[in-house]
Design a protein that fits this description.
heterodimer; A: about 270 residues; 6-stranded antiparallel barrel; 4-stranded antiparallel β-sheet; 7 helices; extended; B: about 120 residues; mainly beta; 5-stranded antiparallel β-sheet
């Protein structure tokens, strides 16, 4: 699974070669250390655990420090003496933001540092780019075929042959809006401003039937907690990659406030 | 820190030499138009009546009268499609937004010319 952790910086707009305006979200992504590699044999699933942003050691708990480096405790010395292989450590500073990305591990190793290099801008016609990339890497494009209706499936097929990521999913915690009414939360229309409407201008109105069935059906949309929940935005195009500054510009909006942590991973949608 | 990053990103999209003009100037805006695969320059001339936004989002509004009908076009200052802005004439104006010109017709639209020293 290709992916990286980052921080949302904010939105702006840039111009592409043709002069078209592209709305982009700037994400400060990486460098991320691989803290742990989950394997089927040991953990029952495959995943890569990444850490982003150093945490001062004085703020990190002993367990957090021990997670990234060997502390040389009495117990670990004893275990080492008995000849048991200890899990490898990345030997880096403790991290503030740690998340696992599930999926095939590939050649990821503990201690490896991941950067935005894995991403590649793809604002032009993406299927076409994938097709080119596939043919340049030795896939017989004509043989696999490229029919319009199968484009998506084929794109996935081609994508497997491309090393860099062109479209991403971004996962983050959305801005919390607290206990929100139906107008804000579900885009209800509310009620009229006049014509006898009394103090219920932002209310939902009727919520269901009468004596039969004498109850509400499940799923009736009402007021309640809105936001502050994990949201995934899928298939955002990578607009620009700045490896020097560790910046990733994706086309479109990303959940959460500026400064919030985000997970950027390769999309399986395209 | 965040602001610094944003500035850096935006800077890469700004023109090194943004077009120089003032509010009230009569300008020719040269815009690149793509027709098929041929590119040509179209000129829109009129009076700059407003300038808004900042950074990559900075826009300016040009107003002119076409066949007795007021026409306003808004251009991004830093768009690569705006090839050049040529100042034809400058005028004496005291405000940043010349929206009052919208209510005027005929001779009243004229602005007093400013002679550059």
């Amino acid at each position: 699974m290709n992916g990286i952790l980052g921080r949302k910086v904010g939105m702006t707009q840039i111009y592409d070669e043709t002069g078209e305006v592209i709305p982009v979200t700037v994400i400060e992504a990486g460098p991320c250390h691989v803290l742990q590699v989950r394997t089927v044999e040991r953990d029952g699933y495959e995943a890569v655990q990444l850490g982003f942003v150093d945490k001062p050691r004085r703020l990190a708990r002993r367990s957090e420090r021990g997670h990234v480096a060997r502390l040389g405790s009495k117990r670990s010395r004893k275990i080492a003496a008995s000849g048991v292989d200890l899990a490898p450590k990345p030997d880096c500073e403790p991290k503030r933001f740690i998340r696992e990305l599930r999926g095939p591990v590939g050649d990821r190793e503990v201690g490896q540092s991941l950067t935005v290099d894995m991403f590649q801008p793809s604002l032009v016609d993406l299927p076409e780019m994938l097709r080119e990339a596939a043919s340049s890497s030795g896939v017989d494009v004509e043989k696999v075929g490229w029919k319009r209706e199968f484009e998506k499936k084929k794109a996935v097929k081609y994508r497997e042959t491309v090393a860099s990521v062109m479209a991403v999913d971004v996962v983050a915690v959305s801005k919390g809006r607290g206990f929100a009414g139906v107008m804000k939360r579900h885009n209800f229309s509310g009620q009229r401003a006049s014509h006898g409407v009394k103090k219920v201008h932002r209310h939902a109105g009727g919520t269901g039937c009468s004596a039969s069935p004498s109850r509400l059906f499940k799923g009736r949309r009402m007021a309640g907690q809105y936001g502050n929940a994990q949201v995934t935005v899928r298939n955002l195009r990578v607009a620009r990659v700045d490896a020097e500054e560790n910046l990733l510009l994706v086309r479109g909006a990303v959940p959460g406030p500026n400064g919030g942590y985000v997970i950027v991973r390769e999309t399986n949608k395209i | 820190m965040s602001q610094e990053i944003m500035n850096k990103v935006e800077k890469s999209c700004l023109k090194d030499e943004p077009p120089q003009f003032d509010i009230g100037d009569t300008v020719d805006v040269h815009t690149r138009i793509l027709e098929g695969d041929k590119e040509r320059i179209q000129i829109f001339s009129g009076t700059v009546i407003a300038r808004s936004g900042s950074g990559t989002r900075e826009m300016f509004t040009v107003r002119r009268i076409v066949a007795g009908e007021g026409v306003e076009r808004k251009f991004p200052v830093h768009s690569p499609r705006v090839a050049a802005v040529e100042v034809k004439r400058s005028s004496v104006v005291r405000r940043a937004k010349l929206y009052f010109l919208r209510d005027r017709i005929g001779k009243a639209v004229r602005l007093k010319e400013r002679r550059r020293k």
